[in-house]
Write a structure and sequence with these properties.
The chain has 72 residues and is of the alpha+beta class. The protein is built from 2 helices and 3 strands; from the N terminus they run E-H-E-E-H. A 3-stranded antiparallel beta sheet has the order 1-3-2. The longest helix has 12 residues. The mean pLDDT is 94.
Length: 72
């Protein structure tokens, strides 16, 4: 499996509770290999590059918990 990694910039990250909220939301994303978030709003994700739809599921999960992308 070839893994694709990318970093998304999200809006609205203010505290450790935001990081935990993102972690909980991304924990349920099928096909996501790894993820981490920082207080600067960077969300790094890794997924099987044969499943590009995982990125869309990540974006949906982030939006579902109140965090929108600053750049696509």
């Amino acid at each position: 499996m070839a893994v694709r990694s990318e970093t998304l910039q999200v809006d609205g990250v203010h505290c450790i509770n935001c990081i935990q909220k993102i972690g909980t939301a991304l924990g349920g994303v099928d096909g996501l290999v790894g993820a981490s978030a920082t207080l600067t709003g960077e969300v790094s994700i890794s997924y099987d590059e044969a499943q590009p739809e995982v990125r869309d599921r990540v974006v949906d999960a982030l939006a579902g918990c109140g965090f929108g992308l600053l750049a696509v």
